[in-house]
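Hi support team,

I submitted a single chain yesterday and got back a structure, but I'm not sure I'm reading the token output correctly. Could someone confirm the output below corresponds to the sequence I sent? I've pasted both exactly as they appear in my results page.

Thanks,
R.
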Amino acid sequence: MTNSAASTRANYTIPIIIIGVLFFIFGFVTWLNATLIPYLRISCELTSFESYLVTFAFYISYFVMALPSSKVLEKTGFKNGMSLGLLIMAVGALIFVPAAMTRTYWWFLLGLFVQGTGLAILQTASNPYVTILGPIESAAKRISIMGVANKFAGILSPIILGAIVLDGIDKIEDKIATMDAAAKAAELDMLSHKVILPYVVMAVVLVLLAVMIRYSALPDIDTEDDDEAGEEKDTRTSIFQYPYLWLGVMTIFFYVGAEVVAVDTLISYGKSLGFDLAEAKFFSSFTLVGMIIGYFVGIIAIPKYISQQNALKYFAMLGVLFTIIATLTNGYTSVLFIASLGFANSIMWPAIWPLAIDGLGKFIKKGSALMIMAIAGGALIPLLYGYLAGLDSIGSREAYWILVPCYLIILFFATKGHKIGKRV
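Hi R., thanks for writing in. Yes, this is the structure output for that exact sequence:
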């Protein structure tokens, strides 16, 4: 290895570790929703559809705040923007305190929206950062490494929060069914208060991380002149002249929707199949274990054995296959095939991002903001699932059919969409 290569690797290592910590935070906060959905459904006395407003409030913030986030990053740079995003997330966590004290669902939703706003800034900065921090051909590998950190946190978060707020929840649910209105309200107030301590601790940790990031060695990267490095300068003057980016935005929308459905619905789905919440609370972690396995496949195989676009194609096919099997089976088999969608989904975010923003040059921040806006798929598609799952004529198992067209759209982007309008 040359001194230059060794120096380059060393220069990459510290930023990648720092970004890896941030991706851990993304995962820990994001995948708490899988536990919050059944918890808030009971404590705030919600319908199935109302409970999925948890994912709507959280993910719609990406759509609303992504473009403002890109403007913030233009002013602050990547590092200071990440620190600001963490502080905003801390504010969102603290909103859970009055929400729990008053058992007001809309306060919980506001807290989730504010947390999502902070994450929108963080993700708008960190995803392009790790993509351009090295060769574009191996970007999926680097994002897969980030994904391991993200999903490992996602495995821990529902287990930790579930142990706190869902402990004995089945007995509580049976007990309140026999109580009068006053006793029931008192019991539900006690249940609601369980969420206060974990979210206060989360706020403190987020503030400490914000300070650490602010004074870290994380360098800013200038993307304004990225086109200059190529042999031929791209003369396009508008982001609307990059059709492959817009197809990537659409693909991210349906991918995130499918991913959130596969994780955040699984606890409630298990309960609908007759499993106790004491057992079902671990089901979403199964999906995230599948994602971690898939990430390791990506780390090992991309680009040495398979290109990121071919990996995306084959994993989209697996998504279609696993969804069909899950909807045609029952019990543990159906649950495990929904969980197996975690493996199918694992390579999608790492592969879609570099394929969609490759060659954007000075438009990379705007392109990244559009990609972050598309995370709104996690707001709308789970809400559609919740509506269909609540219908007697469809139900929670058959509602998973909505995932099939999502994976077919991803398959199109992998085979053709990422090439349309791209300079070669």
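A quick pointer for reading it: Residues 53-102 form the longest helix (50 residues). Let us know if anything else looks off.

Best,
Support desk
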